[in-house]
Design brief:
Elements: H1 6-70, H2 73-94
Length: about 110
């Protein structure tokens, strides 16, 4: 998180000792440690929540893609079209000279 070396930590400790004194320094160090621990836990909580949300979105997207890939509608439509064409071609091959039947008008008398 922070790029703090041992020299900076030592300088901060000396300044804290001079400002707070030896009586209040341990309590301040415990308080600072507790606040740092709570901040880290909060950050980890936010991070894990974001990771869960991203995993859930990825799972939803994968499920949609799988459902779209498994949808047989287009294949069934193509098979039906092929079957209709086969029936038409078989019917035309059986009666090549017959024209489509048109109803004859009724004569009035």
């Amino acid at each position: 998180m922070f790029d703090v070396g041992m020299g900076e930590v030592g300088l901060i400790a000396i300044v804290a000792l001079l400002v707070l004194g030896p009586e209040r320094l341990p309590g301040a160090a415990r308080t600072a440690g507790a606040l740092l621990r709570k901040a880290r836990q909060g950050w980890q909580s936010v991070r894990s929540e974001i990771e869960r949300e991203l995993a859930a979105e990825e799972l939803k997207r994968t499920m949609k893609e799988t459902a779209a890939a498994a949808d047989p509608t287009a294949e069934v439509r193509d098979a039906l079209h092929s079957a209709q064409e086969a029936v038409r071609s078989t019917a035309e091959a059986a009666n090549p000279t017959s024209a489509p039947a048109t109803p004859e008008p009724h004569e009035r008398g």
